[in-house]
Every structure is written in structure tokens, then in C-alpha cells.
Amino acid sequence: MKSILILTDFSDAAFRAAEYATSLAPLLGVENLILYHAYRTMVQGSDIPVPAPQVENLVYVEHMEKLASLQDQLRMMTDANVKYELLAEDAYLPDQLNKLCRERNVGLVVMGVAGKTGLQQFFMGSNTSQVLKVSEYPVLVVPQEAVVGKKISSVVFSTDLQNISKASLEQLHRFLDLLRPEVHIVNVEPPAADKYSDNTRNEITLLHDTLEKYNPAFHYVTGTHIADSVLEFAKEHHASLVVTVPKKHSFISSIFHKSISKELAYNSPVPLLSIPASPE
Fold first, then answer.
1. Would you indicate the residue range of the signal peptide (predicted)?
2. CATH code given to domain 3-143
């Protein structure tokens, strides 16, 4: 992993995510952190973001100054030999994210999320949801309550045991090899579900074979609401991190759009690592 991309909107939640990423970088062997802010320039009286030459440079300078201030704050909290790169641009983040990650050798995207109300909650959830939806790279969502500097000693990998991608598991391996945590694999199904179909058995076998060296514990939980059950399981097992591989139309890819899942999206003290469902 060459670099970590830290997304920021200069909020308190984003600052906590940046702190968390800074403390995590040495554990992942990362020496380059990119502080990134995407903004849209608006012409007065217009609802459409368009270039405004008379203010564009001033806006850019202002954002770069904020990034420099953030960098100074983060440098004070670590003795690690970490290099910071500052990047602000007039861009729509979902359209720019994967291109940026490819060009900068990014192995992990980090962003914050915090419980809010009204329109602030809507836009925060929308931004996070869009990043999870489009990202071709692992995304770490850090809640504002996350404890910075705490060792990641226990990981909960939530899976629906359906069409598990070996490529995604290989990405998970990279994190587990570096962090060496206790690993729990949890599957939540409704009471009437058939947990032991032939396909399910095959997926369980795949997980056993590919994750064997981490000596994972397998847990099969009955619950009517997946997100709430995963959150409760993580709490009971003192998890430091929840990992998931989102799929189109799965609960995690739409979690920030469902009010029933706001407890996990906005209030969980446990960071969430979303690993993209890579093609085989």
C-alpha cells in the first residue's frame, strides 16, 4: 500500500478521520498521506456549479491554507516518518475518486461520518453513500466517536455468504496480515432463511480455506435487521473494526439511505472498512 487518501470537508468528523488515518498509517506501512478536499465553485445567482474565474483562485488558496493547517495539526500527533501531500480541486468527488486513486497509488480511502440532523445529516449520508458506491478501492469510514491510537485487536467480517469474491478476500488478507487481529466472521439471516443450502456451504468452505491462517471464528446469527444485528455483535465482541464487502442492492451499499440503519451509519463507535466487490 503506497498511499492513504484522506477526504476532508474540514468538519470535526473529518478531522477525527484524519487523526485516525495518521495513527493507522504506520501499522499499514504507509508513509504517504494525501489530504484531499473537493469543492464546487458557484456563480452567484446560479444553482449550477460552474467555473468562476474571478473567485476561483481565491477559493483554491483558501482551501489550500485549510489543508496546510490540518497538516500542521496532524504532524503534532505522530513521530512517524509520514509525508503529507495537499490537494484541493474544483471537482465532483464521486467522478474524480477512482482516477485520483489510480494516479496516486492509493490503497485506502479514509473519510469521516458523524450523527447529524436535518439537511446536514442528509448531505453527510449522501456523500458517504456515493463514495462507498463508486469506489474501486477500500474505504474506511471513521465515526467521530472512534478512539484514535487504539490497537485494532478484533475484526468482525460481516458476510451474506453469497458470491464471495476471492479478489476481495485477497484485499482483506493485506489488512489482516498487517494488523494481525482476532477475526470473527458473522452471517446474519432472518429466522426463516435456509442457512445451509449447497451454495451457502460452498461459500463457507471458501472462507475457511482462504482465511484459515487467521484462525477465524464463525458465527451464524438470527436477526430480522442485518445492520442492527451486526452492530450488536460487534459490541458484544469488543470489535475494533467491522469489515464488509458491499454488493449492489445489498444492505451496506444502501445503508446510508435507510433510516433503520442510521444507528450503524451515524452512531457506531466502530470504524467500518468497506472492501469493493472486485471481479474475479
1. none
2. 3.40.50.620
